[in-house]
Write a structure and sequence with these properties.
The chain has ten helices and seven strands. By secondary structure, it is α/β, with parallel strands linked by helices. The chain has one domain: Spore Coat Polysaccharide Biosynthesis Protein SpsA, Chain A. About 2% of the residues have low confidence.
Length: 258
């Protein structure tokens, strides 16, 4: 690891990302981070991949001491990110998806808001999303409307995979996530609304949250995340996400988070 103090820890969860890795996403991440005027690290948490992801990551980081790989038993995205947070040394932690649908360079848009006093700065994709079907765009609008009625009315996009916060905020809030208390890990890849619970708890803990418009287009080349037809997969995802939002609301009403 570099001798200079680490200010940014980039945490990338990975589950069966072989196609995205072969597209050169880690090189893209590295090239951007080398342009930063401060110390950084990349923590890749492999969430029990069953394809060639682990070997590709290990080969890439072999001669790169500012990258590290954390192998984990499959437990889902929130657990993978939490495992990365516990390893992080940076003052700021950035969560970004392996497919780089929001490119790492968009961190340039997030960083100035820390100087303005915010502790949590998240990316927002807006409503028009390049590379997604009309069905998904319509579903996003419906999810936004439902979720804002129930929780986080001032945040437009809770589901963008490009989020950052002060490390101390992450260490304080992540252990309180009910999503991490579930004993049974997900089977395969699962889209969740854990982000809603995370942002709700960040606000409840008194951290200032800033939402920033970022570039986003669908660049996911993975062939192993989805099972069955895209439509049936999307409908199942939508039901699961709505269920999780309602669970967070019920937890709020029951006083669980107090």
């Amino acid at each position: 690891m570099r001798a200079e103090p680490i200010q940014l820890s980039v945490i990338i969860p990975c589950w069966n990302e072989q196609n995205n890795l072969e597209a050169g996403v880690l090189l893209e991440v590295e090239q951007y981070l080398h342009s930063l005027p401060f110390g950084w690290e990349v923590i890749i948490v492999d969430d029990g991949s069953s394809d060639g992801s682990l070997a590709l990551i290990a080969a890439f980081i072999q001669s790169r001491d500012h990258f590290c790989l954390v192998p984990a038993v499959h437990g889902g995205k929130p657990r993978a990110i939490w495992a990365g947070v516990q390893q992080a040394q940076g003052e700021i932690v950035l969560f970004t998806d392996m497919d780089q649908s929001t490119p790492i360079k968009e961190f340039d848009r997030l960083l100035p808001w820390y100087q303005a006093g915010f502790q949590v700065v998240i990316g927002s994709r807006g409503l028009r999303r390049s590379g997604t079907s009309l069905l998904r765009q319509l579903g996003s609008v419906l999810f936004l409307s439902l979720r804002q009625l129930i929780l986080l009315p001032n945040i437009q996009d809770t589901q963008c995979g490009f989020k950052s916060c002060q490390r101390e905020a992450a260490l304080q809030v992540f252990p309180k996530l009910q999503a991490l208390q579930q004993d049974e890990p997900p089977a395969g890849w699962k889209v969740t609304a854990y982000d809603v619970e995370l942002l709700y708890l960040m606000e409840q803990a008194g951290f200032q949250v800033k939402e920033v418009q970022v570039e986003w287009r669908n660049r996911d080349h993975s062939e192993t995340k989805h099972n069955g037809e895209a439509r049936s997969s999307y409908l199942q995802e939508s039901v699961e996400m709505a269920r999780e939002v309602l669970r967070v609301k019920l937890n709020q009403l029951r006083g669980v988070y107090k």
